[in-house]
Amino acid sequence: MNTSMPPPLTGEERSRLADPARLRALRETGLLESAPAEIFERATRLATRVTGVPVSLVSMVDDNRQVFVAQTGLDAPAPSETPLSHSFCRYVVESDAPLNVPDAREDTVLRDNGAVRDLGVTAYLGVPLRTVDGQPLGAFCLIDREARQWTEEEYEALSDIAAGVEAEIRLRRQINVAHREENRFRAVLDQMPIGVGVAELGTGRLIDLNATAIEMFGVTDGDVTKQLAFDAYTPEGRKLSLSEFPIVRAARNEETISHMELRCVRHDGPERNLLVSAQRVESEPPVAVATALDISDLNAAREHAAEVDRRLAHFHEITFDAIVELDSEDKIRFANSVMRARIRDAVGAEAEAQAVGRSLWETAPHLIGSSFEKALAEARRTGVPTVTDQDGRDGRILEARLYPEHGAILAYLRDVTEERQIAKARDTLTRELNHRVKNAFAMMSGLVGMTARHAKTPEEMARGLRERIGALARAHELINPTATPERDFRGMVELRELLLGVLSPYTNLDDPRLILDGPDIALNHAGSTNLALVIHELATNAVKYGALSHDAGLLELSWRDTSGQLELDWRESGYPEELVQPSNSGFGSKLIDLTIQGQLRGTYGTEWVPDGFQARMTVPMDLIKG
Fold this sequence. Notes:
Blueprint: H1 11-14, H2 20-29, H3 38-51, E1 55-61, E2 65-72, E3 81-83, H4 89-95, E4 99-101, H5 114-118, E5 123-130, E6 136-144, H6 152-191, E7 195-200, E8 206-209, H7 211-217, E9 230-233, H8 246-253, E10 257-266, E11 271-281, E12 287-294, H9 296-318, E13 322-326, E14 332-335, H10 337-347, H11 349-353, H12 360-363, H13 371-382, E15 386-391, E16 397-405, E17 408-415, H14 417-454, H15 459-479, E18 493-494, H16 495-503, E19 514-517, E20 522-523, H17 525-544, E21 554-562, E22 565-573, H18 587-599, E23 603-609, E24 612-620, H19 621-624
Parallel strand pairs: 19-21
Antiparallel strand pairs: 1-2, 1-6, 2-3, 4-5, 5-6, 7-8, 7-12, 9-10, 10-11, 11-12, 13-14, 13-17, 15-16, 16-17, 18-20, 21-22, 22-24, 23-24
Catalytic activity: ATP + protein L-histidine = ADP + protein N-phospho-L-histidine
EC number: 2.7.13.3
Pfam families: GAF (PF01590), HWE_HK (PF07536), PAS_4 (PF08448), PAS_8 (PF13188)
């Protein structure tokens, strides 16, 4: 036996007390919080009888105290634990070696230990108690209140008894770890959204269900041995007998059932759609295990998606637009009846019958090199919707709108032949009218100049008249619906500038009767010309009959961009007499309706109030914004 004291403890040895792995192993024994166990008490009594020493302890040491798992011989009332300042056992753990102290009062390390002063410890002999993997948890020791030279026989007796104590500690730790793992596994199992059941092999008797299965199948009070309170049906509506349940088939016949769909109707609860699997599991003893996944919400979502698909397909079939969907390789996934009719008329019934699943370019080779092919390539390259006009084989003009999504392309082809022809005719007529009106303005300007030269009125009168006529000409330039290089028309114009240009013959910003309120919005050709035409018509009426026809009137124009829509309000007020809505719409009103609804695809509404007139127009920003 080593009878010498160990050298002074280094910092590394002291750190062993706080080693996380050691403390974790110590906690896993459960001995720090448990009441003294009889088996350990017997060990300490046996040690004192065999050696004749008055005191024996089984001590567990953590990072700030020692706990007496068992003790014999301490003066009553015996403490259940002490701080490390009153511990010799800590040195056994720190050194992971036996500790032999004949007389602590003469030891420079131990003579100031609180156990010497408060517990009367003089002689000490202790051996470490370790885990299977060698972590020192505490010490089994003998204590005498008198100085004592420990013998080899006493050390061997202490070591032999300690071996039994150590074996019991290891067993308790294994049991605690197993219980902890079982509880953890059970907690995980009960948290799973899948129902799990275990049945006895051969009989099919249920052994266990997790919490989800208990709630799913209506088991009460956790008794899984009773008859389950539900009925099961196949998707076709046939009721299953008990012997046909997947878990019973797996238990009795050792069948493997995979993803069997059942309708489960609880006697006291809701109906569910379940996806059930069951099979034998090799264990001791072997059992049958079944899992049940609630797919009620999934089935409902599938039915809803199918209904949405049916409604979308119905819409695709009743629309006048031709619709085709292409995959990432330009193969036709879908073509509605209008598209199939166009394919049939263009390349024949046989090509139409084979169109779905075939390349668009094989089905309609005449589209190779067309504007449609270029727009399709652009949509794939940029990932943004693309619009182009495509000339059909039948001479019709089709507006193709292509929408890319996840490699596929959805294309809508609308027949715009009449729309394009009307627009072309309107453009021709407007250009001719513009030319003649400009000539009329020039002639009026000349007449005013001549009148100024020969009349007796001041020259300021002629200048004022010339400026008003010039303002009309500038407004007319904004109304021009076609921008061409020879006219040097600006591609964009601010909405505020447009309003002032159109209203300049009748008023200006210094006029207290005029209020303009709205953000800066740049208009493209279509927006500026069409809105100018509408404002011109409204302004003409305001000058003749409304707010600009008298000094007390007020004209308020406000506009805003609301979710991709331009909303413009025209409000006239302050009219001294009650205004009455005309019984018939004049040419101006019809022209406004045609412009807003036909050209700009917007809405227009009016309201006559006692002291004025209100109008609101709403048009899509993507058609007018520059």
